[in-house]
Specification:
The complex is a heterodimer. Chain A folds into two domains: about 140 residues, PurM-like, N-terminal domain (60s Ribosomal Protein L30, Chain: A), CATH 3.30.1330; about 170 residues, Phosphoribosyl-aminoimidazole Synthetase, Chain A, domain 2 (Alpha-Beta Complex), CATH 3.90.650.10. Chain A is about 30% helix and about 25% strand. Chain A has a seven-stranded mixed sheet. A four-stranded mixed sheet of chain A has the order 1-6-4-5. Chain B is an alpha/beta fold. Chain B has two domains: about 110 residues, HypD, alpha/beta domain 1 (Rossmann fold, 3-Layer(aba) Sandwich); about 150 residues, HypD, alpha/beta domain 2 (Rossmann fold, 3-Layer(aba) Sandwich), CATH 3.40.50. Chain B is about 40% helix and about 20% strand. Chain B has a six-stranded mixed sheet with strand order 4-3-5-6-11-10, with helices on both faces. In chain B, strands 2-1-7-8-9 form a five-stranded parallel sheet. In chain B, helix 2 runs parallel beside helix 15 and helix 6 packs parallel to helix 7. The longest helix of chain B is centred in the middle third of the chain and has 17 residues. The chains are: A alpha+beta, B alpha/beta. The interface between A and B is large, with 31 and 51 residues.
């Protein structure tokens, strides 16, 4: 950690004057050192040969430190993965911090170090950013916005328009892990567990899949907020076809399954971070899963459903015992049950 | 998950469904009393697997759904007071009061916290000695022991800033109210396994005797439920009316005596208004005089207007099994989980919510 002559962030650190420069010089520019950032201009000038994908996301998670990561790691992975889901290889990100005054500098440093490590692993550079400080009580320790940009993979054609009847639906890993890890440390709901968030960068995995399967990948999405149920509902609505999923094929960590049981939560509606769902040409689905199983973060991947012409715009789940039910979009926030 | 996965076995469930099909010769209406069972029936798609002779009627066993409007209004009123922390189980938050829900009060700045245990509320009271902490003590007999324990612990530790807003309802009087209602025709019951875990089975013998209906204490997993249904159907087909225990791996005949002692240290049985229904005699718990200082309704001067229920919501008929959600004009149209007209559309155990979320009917 750099030598800073203050212990907590105050309003002055966002004021643009000496304090701001002190913070930026020692904590940001040194840590994220790269050619584009060092121009210290208002923005970064970038050049690309091909089409690009752009995505932005804001991170307001509470608590900011959680089992398996912190808000910094999430802020990089979230945007990196969104760009990757478009079929692009993310290259640059912006980093905007909204800090509540009073945040200990040690915590800010831990977050920034995590941003750097995560960006390095994903192979993206932080090329521009912003720092604002709000009064105590006007924020929740720290909010982060990141915007990512990346060049499209030459073989990628990712669109809901490409989905057709018979497409197989593949999930890359266990559901509900991130949401349950966060819930285990939420005030009032704490429970002892070894479950850690699965936040990770999926971009390297996606590139390898695009290299091999190209246009047979019809759609990719990361089912974050609202869980896989809400993502499937959005897709079913857009394609005006039905989606069938099979409960017994959906991978879930047994500890996460147990926690959902105790909390009265449906894992299909719990937030995810380190997984994606893919709609794949039926004849290539088995090969796709086999390949994914050998790649980083893909060992639990499985085919969990298919696209059908029946029940347009609806998602229907076949339960473990063979019964069928409609899976609807999540309503508001999932609230823990009474008993 | 031991004792869970065995009871979700597809082969066993289908074996029992086939046995029900072989046993049944007439039409029977069976009520599952508990909302958790309704949820399991719909979530697992069991209703469509049963033979057409069996009609499942969904009972009043959702504590959130039967909590009367004036108690929600009281909770909202308390939450909006200065220096007040209102603690509640999660699924109460979205239930509409006459003006707003607790979730809306929270959005407007009230300090409303979602907890899993009243003992956690007690900790919050210890950490915030300058604030009043109220726990919205909702539930059937199942949650009563923990709620009572929080009061006993507060009393023993001399904690003055903790109280509960009592809203407990009891299952056997509700079953009796359903049986007394001329419009409901129930042939047999699946009793709520978790309630019996605490209270035992003895309260059901007089009901079986008086009303000549089979009552089977039943669990919550798919296999539990189809086993319970099979046991009721066997009794009905053989003309028997007995209390049976499908959930014997958890429920003992006498229940949990220590839990019962804890309940009756703090609570006494009182008459109670059920949302959408009426006052059912001796169907709730009130706080005993000894612990009156921990009863939020006595501790605070709560001023709310008595308001009539929304006439568009047919919760009463739904809760007594006279009508099904699909028979309500507003189901899925004017009334959805986002904009509920009544409580059964809100709680995860509410009948309307279960149908809205899971049922093919909602398609």
């Amino acid at each position: 950690m750099p030598q800073l002559d203050f212990d907590i962030i105050t309003l002055g650190h966002g004021g643009g004057g000496l304090l701001t420069n002190n913070l930026l010089d020692k904590a940001i520019f040194e840590l994220f050192d790269n050619e584009k950032l060092q121009t210290r201009h208002d923005g970064a000038v970038l050049s690309f040969k091909n089409k690009v994908a752009l995505s932005t996301d804001s991170f307001v998670i509470s608590p900011i430190f959680f089992p398996g990561g912190n808000i910094g790691e999430l802020a990089v992975n979230g945007t990196v993965n969104d760009v990757a889901m478009c079929g692009a290889q993310p290259k640059y990100i912006s980093l905007a911090l909204i800090i509540e005054e009073g945040l200990p500098v040690t915590e800010l440093w831990d977050i920034l170090v995590q941003v750097k490590a995560t960006a390095d692993k994903a192979g993206v550079l932080v090329v521009t950013g912003d720092t604002k400080v709000v009064e105590s009580g006007k924020g929740d320790k720290i909010f982060i916005n990141t915007t990512g940009i990346g060049e499209m993979h030459s073989k990628a054609e990712i669109s809901t328009h490409n989905i057709k009847e018979g497409d197989k639906i593949i999930i890359s890993g266990n559901v509900a892990t991130h949401g349950i890890a966060i819930m285990s440390v939420r005030k009032g709901l704490e429970f002892e567990t070894t479950i850690e968030s699965d936040t990770c960068n999926l971009n390297h995995t996606i590139v390898e899949l695009l290299d091999e399967f190209g246009t047979d990948i019809h759609l990719m999405r990361d089912p974050t907020r609202g869980g896989v149920a809400s993502t499937f509902n959005e897709i079913a609505r857009d394609i005006k076809m039905g989606i069938n999923i099979h409960q017994s094929n959906i991978p879930i960590d047994s500890r996460v399954d147990s926690a959902c049981e105790i909390l009265g939560l449906d894992p299909l509606y719990v937030a995810n971070e380190g997984i994606f769902i893919a709609f794949i040409e039926a004849s290539k689905a088995d090969d796709f899963v086999r390949k994914l199983n050998t790649l980083e973060y893909g060992s639990e991947a499985a085919i969990i459903g298919e696209v059908v012409n029946e029940h347009p715009a609806k998602v229907v789940l076949t339960s473990n015992i063979g019964g069928k039910r409609v899976v609807n979009m999540q309503v508001g926030e999932q609230l823990p049950r009474i008993c | 998950m031991k004792y869970l996965t065995e009871y979700r076995d597809a082969e066993e469930v289908n074996k029992h469904i086939n046995l029900i099909k072989k046993t049944v010769t007439k039409n029977w209406s069976i009520m599952e009393v508990c909302g958790g069972q309704t949820h399991a029936l719909v979530k697992n798609g069991i209703i469509d697997m049963l033979p057409e002779e069996i009609t499942m009627i969904h009972g009043p066993g959702c504590p959130v759904c039967v909590t009367p409007l004036h108690l929600i209004d009281k909770a909202v009123y308390l939450a909006q007071q200065d220096n007040m922390i209102l603690c509640s189980y999660g699924d109460m938050l979205r239930v509409p009061g006459s003006e707003k829900s607790m979730l809306q009060a929270k959005a407007e700045g009230a300090d409303v916290r979602i907890l899993y245990s009243p003992l956690e509320a007690l900790n919050i009271a210890k950490e915030n000695p300058d604030k009043e902490v109220v726990f919205f003590a909702v539930g059937f007999e199942t949650t009563a022991p923990a709620n009572a324990l929080s009061v006993i612990q507060a009393y023993n530790a001399g904690i003055k800033n903790y109280s509960i807003l009592p809203s407990h309802v009891l299952v056997p009087p509700a079953i009796e109210a359903v049986l007394e209602d001329v419009d409901s025709h129930i042939d047999g019951f699946l009793a709520a396994g978790h309630v019996c875990t605490i209270m035992g089975n003895f309260e059901y013998y007089p009901l079986v005797e008086k009303y000549k209906v089979p009552i089977v204490v039943t669990g919550f997993e798919p296999l539990d439920i189809v086993q319970g249904i099979l046991m009721v159907v066997k009794q009905l087909e053989q003309g028997k009316t007995e209390v049976e225990n499908q959930y014997a791996r958890i429920v003992k005949e006498e229940g949990n005596l220590q839990a019962q002692a804890t309940i009756f240290e703090v609570f006494e049985v009182t008459d109670r208004l059920w949302r959408g229904m009426e006052i059912i005699p001796m169907s709730g718990y009130g706080v005993k005089e000894k612990y009156a200082n921990f009863d939020a309704t006595k501790k605070f001067n709560i001023s709310i207007h008595e308001v009539e229920e929304n006439e568009e919501c047919i919760a009463g008929e739904i809760m007594k099994g006279i009508k099904k959600p699909g028979e309500c004009l507003h189901f899925g149209k004017k009334c959805t989980p986002t904009f509920p007209l009544g409580a059964p559309m809100v709680s995860s155990e509410g009948v309307c919510a279960a149908y809205f979320h899971y049922s093919v009917l909602a398609m």
